[in-house]
Amino acid sequence: MLFPVRSLPIVACVLLCMSAMWARPQELQILPNGMQVVVHANHDAPVAAVRVYVRTGSMYEQEYLGAGISHLFEHLINGGTTTTRSETEINDLLDRLGGANNAYTTKAHTCYHITTSAHMVHDAIDLLADWMINSKFPQDEFDREMGIVIEELKKGREEPRRIIYQALYDTVFDKHPVHYPTIGYENQVRQITREDILVYYERMYVPNNMVLVVTGDFDRDEVFRHVERAFRQIPEPGKPAGDDPGAVQERPFLPHGLPAIALPAEPPQMGRRFREIRQDGLGGTYFRIAFRTVPISHADLYPLDVLSYVLSRGRSSRLVKKLQEDLAIVSSISSYSHTPEYDAGVFVIYGNCRDENVDHVIAAVLEEIYRAAAEPVTADELAKAKRLKVADDILGNQTVSDEAADIGMNILMAGNPKFSDVYLKGIANVTAADILAAAPRYFFEDNLSIVLLRPGQDAATVAATGQQSADSSILKSFLPNGLRLLSKKNPNQPLVNLRVLFLGGVRLEPAGKAGVSNLTAELLTRGT
Q1: pLDDT tens for residues 502-512?
Q2: H-run or E-run covering 404
C-alpha cells in the first residue's frame, strides 16, 4: 500500500485509502442501557478484536484527583476475580483465548482489549462483560495490585521520558486536570482503599459511560445479538439474567446519571514558561518545546498535523535536516500535534542532545517554528507531508485490532466511528495558506513552554570533557560465523543503539506455514 500512496496524487490517494478502510459500513448503535456499540465484520483474517473503552481517566477522578484511581482500576479489573469466575478460571480462559489481552489508562479513558481467534469472539465478549459488570475486588488482589502500582511509580521516577513527559504537563497546564499524572502521586495513591474502589466502580463503570467495539471475521448480526445478551440491562439485582437462568449478577448494569464533572478551563498563558530538572546519571539532555493549541473539534487540527510532518517527518524535514543532519547538534528530534477531545491541545517539539548544545538547539528550533508562522511552506514540502501523513495513518490501521482501536478512538474523540474519513479529507484539503494562517495563532513567545531534563553537575562535567570523535563513517566487517556487522560512531550522545536483522518474512515462508516468521519474532523475546 505504501508505494501506491507515495505515487498517487494526494486527493486520489486519500479516496483510495478511505475506500480500503471503510469498504463495509460501521454503524454506531446504542443499547437500551446506553452503551455505545460498533460491531464490524472484517473477513481479511480469521481473528477478532474486542475492546471496551470507559470514559474514566486521571482528569475525571474528582475527589481522587492525583490519586491515579483509574489506573489502579485497570490493574484490578484486567484479570481480576468476578462474582462468576475465580482468578484461576479467568487466567485459564485467557490462555484459551491466546493470551493477547491487555489494558491501558490515559488522562481521558481506560481501555480493556482482547484479540483472539474468530471462533472465540463470544468468549472474549463474555469475559469483558464480566469484568465491566461483576468485578469483585477481593482484598488480597487489591493489596497485590497496589504494591505493583507503587513499584511502577518508583521506577517511573528513574525513567527520563516519563519524568519529562509529566514535567511538560505540569508546566503547560496549571488549572486543567491534565496537569495530574495518570498514575498519580505516591502519597495519594497509598491512601486509596478498597471502599474507594467500590464507590468509583459504581459511579463510573456504568454502560452509558462505555464504548464497545468488536471487529473480525464473523457474522455481524449474530455477534451483535451476543453483545446485547452479554451487556443486557438487568431489571433487578440478584435475579436470573434473561435467557440464562443460571447467571446471577449482583450489580444491576443500568444507566444512571453520571456525575457532572466540570473540567476547569486553562486560562490564557501570559508569558514564556521554563522548567529545568537535574538528574544524575543522564548522558545528555532531554528537551520539550511546547505551544498550547486546540481540541480535535477545531479546524486548525489539520494544518497543525501537516505542519508537524513538514517540520520533523523524514530526513529532509526542516528540523531533522537542520539540527540533526547539517548542524549535528541533536541525536534525535521530532514533533507532534496533540489535539484531544478536551480543550488541552499542545504542539510539542522533542528530542535529545548533548548538554552543552541545549541553548543552540532551543534557538535553532524556535527559528524554524517562527519561520513557519511567517512564511508559507513550499509546494514540495506540503505535498510530501500530506502523502506521508496519509500513508502513516493507513499503515497504522492494517489489523483487526488496529481497526477496532481506530473505531473506538473515533467515537471517544469525535462521536463518529467514521471520523477517519473526515480526518483524511481534512488533511487532503490543507493548503500552504491554511498553515500560514494557523501557525501564528499558537507559535508566539507568550504561548511558549520549555522543559529540560539535564544531567546533574557531575554527569554534565564528565560529558563535557569526555573524548569525542568526528568519525561518522559506517564500518562494515564480518564475524567468524559470517555475521555482517555495520557500525557507526555518533559523538552527539553517549548511548548505544543495537539492531539485529534477519533475512526472512512472508516471501520466504514455506508452503502451509504462513505467519511462521512473525510467530518466531514474537517468541524470540519471550523464551528462555
Answers
A1: 878 877 788 88
A2: helix 400-414
